[in-house]
Design brief:
Length: 384
């Protein structure tokens, strides 16, 4: 059309390929269906552009595309942050592109780009008066804050998204937000409120006949029970794993093994924990889920260290640090440096250990990570 510019053509193409990437990355089900459902501002021409671009063979190719094109996407989307930086057509395309792209970014752990693009998505959705797009953006920013250890901020953003989804009557998204609320409250030590949110979410999953959502809730309930009864936690994670096996949900299976590993660590059973962390990484393969992968690798380092396998533990810790630094993920880097310091201390390299712990404290500053920070402060206060 006469209004088509090279920029709008590029945005149309990126939004179309982002939908193809989303379908390759998210397993079939409500999560994929909901993300692909057009919001009020999505351009009518989008569906035709999607038909014109080929599907990805699998998730690995989709992730490679997102990684390769991310710099260009940021350059195209960022002007929408400026007042009058994009017309309505461009703004609608940017909003559509980011809604479809964000699950790839979250799974890859691209926290620096998520910070920028999350703000673009939120401002654009509000400018367009697109309530579902605003709720997506709020939820995606909540996910970023969770990844980077800013749990109170994540809880507030998730709450604002939940308010919009309740107003719109979207049960599947109400269920997701309640699941996330339960996870965040558990991480903040607000266990009773966490249980309430998770039980509500479980009810919605059953109402929706959504075994994937039910599996995630059992996973979060397992994390909650771990504080009081790790054996009961393992049963919840096994329920999650059984559902994941039944529906072929790779990320659910990967998470379940990781969580069973952590429950065994809580029970003081590193030998029982280790094969679950190894199996979790094996299942993940090329699917990519940075949050799950980083937690699994952290658990693997802990299990190896507790078993006295210092060499493999140090190698795994170095690999985790490398992957966190490549993503500008200071939070995960801080958690890894805490473990690195413990490994160095056990080798008698006290000064190097203390340097790692000080670096970890700096990286964890501004997060809601209290347990590890308190442990590091205790270690630094201890005579070397």
């Amino acid at each position: 059309t006469a209004t088509t510019t090279p920029r709008t053509t590029a945005l149309h193409w990126y939004a179309a390929v982002a939908e193809r990437a989303l379908v390759a990355v998210l397993e079939p089900g409500l999560d994929q269906d909901d993300r692909c459902r057009p919001t009020s501002a999505q351009p009518a021409a989008h569906a035709a552009y999607v038909r014109d671009v080929p599907a990805f063979p699998g998730p690995e190719e989709a992730f490679i595309w997102a990684d390769t094109e991310l710099e260009n996407i940021v350059a195209l989307a960022e002007p929408a942050l400026a007042e009058g930086g994009a017309g309505d057509v461009e703004a609608a395309l940017v909003s559509t592109l980011l809604r479809l792209l964000f699950p790839c970014l979250q799974r890859r752990g691209r926290v620096a780009e998520m910070e920028v693009l999350g703000q673009v998505a939120l401002r654009t959705a509000r400018r367009l008066g697109d309530a579902p797009a605003e709720a997506y953006a709020l939820g995606d920013l909540a996910g970023l804050h969770f990844l980077t250890g800013r749990l109170q901020d994540a809880l507030a953003l998730n709450g604002r998204a939940l308010t919009i989804w309740r107003r719109l009557g979207r049960l599947s998204w109400i269920r997701r937000c309640l699941n996330n609320r339960g996870l965040l409250l558990e991480s903040l030590g607000r266990y009773e409120e966490s249980g309430d949110a998770l039980r509500q979410s479980l009810g919605y999953s059953r109402q929706l006949n959504d075994p994937h959502g039910e599996a995630i809730t059992h996973s979060h309930l397992g994390n909650l029970y771990e504080h009081t009864d790790p054996r009961a936690a393992i049963e919840q994670h096994r329920l999650s794993l059984a559902l994941g096996d039944r529906i072929g949900a790779v990320i659910v299976q990967h998470s379940a093994h990781c969580n069973i590993g952590y429950a065994h660590l809580t029970l003081g059973e590193p030998a029982a924990a280790l094969p679950h962390f190894e199996e979790s990484l094996r299942i993940l393969g090329g699917h990519s889920d940075w949050h799950g992968e980083s937690q699994t690798r952290l658990g693997l380092v802990r299990a190896l260290r507790l078993l006295g396998r210092t060499g493999p533990a140090a190698g795994e810790c170095a690999e985790l640090l490398h992957r966190a630094d490549a993503r500008a993920d200071r939070y995960t880097g801080g958690l890894a440096r805490h473990q690195h310091g413990l490994l160095l201390h056990e080798q008698g390299r006290t000064d190097e250990a203390r340097a790692q712990w000080r670096a970890a404290l700096e990286a964890l500053d501004g997060t809601d990570e209290t347990t590890v920070v308190a442990e590091i402060e205790g270690l630094l206060g201890r005579p070397g």
